[in-house]
Amino acid sequence: MYVLRNILLLLTFLGVIAQIACYIVEPGPTVRATKGAVWPKPQRQISSDSFYIVRPQAFEFRVVAENCDLLQNSLQRYLDIINGSTVSQPISKNLVQKRHYYKPWRADKNFMGYLDTLDVLLTDPCKDIDLPTHEMKEQYILNITSEGTGTVLSASTIWGILRGLETFSQLLHATDEKALQINCTTIFDFPRFSHRGLLIDTSRHFIPMIKLFKTIDAMAYNKLNVFHWHITDDQSFPYQSLKYPELSEMGAYTSWYIYTPSDVQKIIRYAAARGIRVVVEFDTPGHTRSWGEAFPDLLTPCYANGVPNGQYGPMDPTKESTYSFLQKFFEEVVKVFSDQYLHLGADEVGYECWESNPDIKEYMEQHGLTSYRQLEDLFVQKLLDIVHNLKAKTIIWEEAFTNGLQLRNDTVVQVWKDWSIGGWKWTTYRATRAGLQVLLSACWYLDHLSNGGDWQKYYDCEPTDFGGSEQQKELMKGGEACMWAEVVNENNIESRVWPRASATAEKLWSAKDAETKQEAAKRLEEHTCRMNKRGIQAQPPNSAGYCIL
Amino acid sequence: MFLLVNSLLFVLYLDLTFVSGLNLPARPTKGEVWPKPQLQVSYQKSYLVNPQTFTFHAVAENCKLLERAFDRYLEIINKSMISSETYGYSEQDDDMYEANKEFVGYLDSLNVLLMEPCNHITVPAHTMEEHYILNITTETSNSILSASTIWGILRGLETFSQLLYSTDREMLKINCTTIVDYPRFPHRGLMVDTSRHFIPVGKILKTLDAMSYNKLNVFHWHLTDDDSFPYQSTKYPNLSKMGAYTKSHVYSQSDVKTIIRFAAERGIRVIAEFDTPGHSISWGKAMPELLTTCYTNGVPNGRYGPIDPTKNSTYSFFENFFDEVAEVFPDQYLHLGADEVLPFCWKSNPNIKKFMKEHNIESYKELENYYIQKILNISHNLTKKPILWEDAFTNSVNLTSSTTVQIWKDLKIIGGWKRTADKVTKAGLPILLSACWYLDRLESGGDWRKFYNCEPLSFIGNDQQKALVLGGEACMWTEVVNQYNIESRVWPRASAVAEKLWSAENADTYWNAAKRLEEHACRMNKRGIEAQPPNGAGFCI
């Protein structure tokens, strides 16, 4: 704590210097928001001063090629968003100025007229039951031309159209209470990385459905495409299993802090409608204390002085019953969660309890295991086999790799530590050299707080900045912002996640070095207000300022 | 960062080694009071309370303020219930309860004995008495809340409402208890900055509600700053017309009245701060002549610095302005700011230099002193007691003992806040402590402990010096706080400060306080305050 305080002190000291350096604070917001700038920044965008006015009441989308309910519902959603984008008061710099005159844009030489339709051209057929997959294509082209015709959003897949609709809605900025403005623009856009996730921990604190829906909404506003659901942990087991309902009956905090099968399906459908995959994590063999409330036999009894002390450690890797249980459990899980990927956890396995247990020792002697790492290896291998037989692909936390386990080369390693020797870069280097795919989270832990608008530290992290060959960089599949919920619940999750996770979203979507932090700050100022306007309780990103709602 | 991560690792490690039970870091208490009362004796014997039929009886003095408090607390008590579906209540449980040997009966009402009349009272003052006695005895008729003042009764009602806890049936439970309670410090504040971000009136009212749940009694309203000027002045309406972010980011006179009345009903004083001569750039939107024009290479560069202390017009403006403020804000105290005055712009301005020469002012500190003396005189003539940030004192401004100094800096290299507290009290000035209670300083995890760790009297000094500590304030600067995160950022972190200022020194250990705070945060949630989790994993019912 002493050292930590000194760091704080130093920061305070630096803060004082910074303050002296810019001793004159101008009235008004510290960072002026952009108008109609897109977050995350598109790969390519050309804009001109020519603009249209969109009257939300008169505006409509026109489907000119493939169509399906999934598309229709999305169009309706974005019409609602566009309708809600107008403001309650005129946007005017000078407040004492009289209310601006009627339709001021008509006097502007750049005014091209009213944009009443946007053509939506989807080339691949879409079905209502479509779910996004890890291979989904998200590329789209958006053309707002000055000729009025040829104003079109086109993509080969529904997922590309969804991203394009989001972009279109962000290009619109309010001029007064009835009208929106959009500048003529050509955008050619696609994600830099295919896996752009947000992890939400619903075990430390239960997050109610409504907040999960809002989180998924906000993810769509940031073009994130993976909802990593860390659904269980030591503290509670809120997932209601069909085969083993006792797990949540006894392991949830209370009988109503659970996600029923119908809740889970709702989340999956809701996310799919927004082009977001739901990757569930059932973390084993550590972080499983809550499983033991209903099934203590799954866990290792800990011993003190040769007798069980009533405490439990990680899953017991020595019993066949453990594996047959997990076999049945994961059979259910792969059916319920339709994504091809499954997160198996495998992080932070403490050996103390295994060490204390004489049965474990005996088993190890019998099977020629000489270390607890090997024992962990045994468990993880068996679990990986179970899951591979169920045709699921797996993601695991980095420990399984750094502990030297033999991993199949289609296993994805999620790198989360940044204090190991060499930091995340070294771990990533090693994992990709071993031919494994990597997801980065180490620099995007949302529970690490610092004063002020701390999105910049997330924005500073470059996922391919780990050395390595081109082949190795190919194995970097993206990353995830992680919201561990020790001190986060329904009351602060929205403001804690947003707009901080927006920084991660841009790093994963936009081109490398797409923009400087200073410029990004202005766009994020707008984007935060945009999220506020859409009902997301995003906190201020930068410093003093305001939103017009 | 490396070390910070290590300390996090350490926490993770601890988590791993605590493998017993569902390892909640702190199990909530049931019916424990926050902040901890000065004296409390509790018994196993308990009553059941039916919120539907429960009433308060004023057995001595009564007034509207009291009636409204009753209504408020009846509603709160109603909200404390958990619906029967949640627990699966059955009528057989009634018999079980009544068979319990600790069951005393049903508490249908609480007698409230207020000794001093309260009809004429409108707002609380700095001299307010908050002492109360609450007795829940085994004889229903003897159960009584008594206090000499309405403010004491308000604190006692809050305590009473916190003693009630939900059971697994449609009733609340309260243990027989005797409490003698009073605050350790008279000034227990929360400062909210409404200039960096505008905080809507609704959120301010919720903040005041939450303050009363924590027995805080001063709402320090940092109304204006460089960034915006949201206070709508009657005499100078252009200040907010031009200095507010937009016309909807303004506190009208009626908003201000609403806030003051709402606060008063909860025994909370409202102290307005109009910070000058620094932190005042937004005043210049409407009245640039108030500010110092900054120069580069001998010509004005279009920028403005602190208030111009050399013009007579400045002081006649402030006489008028503070005349209004003194009327609008009835509290006897007025916060005049005076922090972080930077001399760069003054230095650049040839007129200022000339003025200094003419008046034999040799340094910019003296110039600042000159300004502050004049402002202090203005407030003195309005019979207001001034509060200033410590900068005025440390910059050797001559202050009289009627001025209160608020300490906010904690630079350890020069002895931290304790050294400042020692110096200021040695000079005979009363102090307020905020240095260790800056809510904008974030750390991962439940960081209320660092606020709880601060003992206001731990500076070196004699008893007379310590008697000058009026209390302190938690400060919520709003660079990155607005309506969306103010509730969860302030609560329950400011609750730690509230307990340090109300309860006896070393009233409780961290570990026990953590359990009480776990309950208290859930209690605030239940009352509609979006307090964040205080400790770690857990849940509220």
Automatic annotation (TrEMBL), chain A:
Any S-S bridges, and between which cysteines? 68-126, 302-353, 529-547
Q: What's the domain of life for this entry? A: Eukaryota
One GO cellular component term: membrane
Signal peptide bounds: 1-18
One Gene Ontology biological process: glycosaminoglycan metabolic process
The record's family statement is: Belongs to the glycosyl hydrolase 20 family.
Catalytic residues as annotated in Swiss-Prot or TrEMBL: 348
E.C. number? 3.2.1.52
Q: Which residues form the Glycoside hydrolase family 20 catalytic domain?
A: 193-511
Q: Where is the Beta-hexosaminidase eukaryotic type N-terminal domain?
A: 38-171
Keywords attached to this Swiss-Prot or TrEMBL record, sorted alphabetically, are: Disulfide bond, Glycoprotein, Glycosidase, Hydrolase, Signal
Q: Which InterPro entries match?
A: Beta_hexosaminidase_sua/sub, GH, Glyco_hydro_20_cat, Hex-like_dom2, HEX_eukaryotic_N
**EC class:** hydrolase
Q: Which Gene3D superfamilies match?
A: Chitobiase/beta-hexosaminidase domain 2-like (3.30.379.10), Glycosidases (3.20.20.80)
Q: Which reaction does it catalyse?
A: Hydrolysis of terminal non-reducing N-acetyl-D-hexosamine residues in N-acetyl-beta-D-hexosaminides
- Name the UniProt record assigns to this protein: Beta-hexosaminidase
GO MF annotations for this entry?
beta-N-acetylhexosaminidase activity
UniProtKB/TrEMBL annotation, chain B:
Give the main EC class: hydrolase
A Gene Ontology cellular component where this protein is annotated is: membrane
Report which residue ranges the record marks as coiled coil: none
Q: Which residues form the Glycoside hydrolase family 20 catalytic domain?
A: 185-504
Q: List the InterPro entries hit by this protein, alphabetically.
A: Beta_hexosaminidase_sua/sub, GH, Glyco_hydro_20_cat, Hex-like_dom2, HEX_eukaryotic_N
**Residue stretches making up the Beta-hexosaminidase eukaryotic type N-terminal domain:** 33-163
Catalytic activity field = Hydrolysis of terminal non-reducing N-acetyl-D-hexosamine residues in N-acetyl-beta-D-hexosaminides
Q: Signal peptide: which range, if any?
A: 1-21
Q: Where is the active site?
A: 340 (proton donor)
Any idea which GO molecular function terms this record carries? beta-N-acetylhexosaminidase activity
What are the cysteine partners in each disulfide bond? 63-118, 294-345, 522-540
Write down the superkingdom of origin: Eukaryota
Q: Which UniProt keywords apply?
A: Disulfide bond, Glycoprotein, Glycosidase, Hydrolase, Signal
Tell me, what is an example of a GO biological process annotation in this record? glycosaminoglycan metabolic process
Instruction: Write out the similarity annotation.
Output: Belongs to the glycosyl hydrolase 20 family.
Name used for this protein in its record: Beta-hexosaminidase
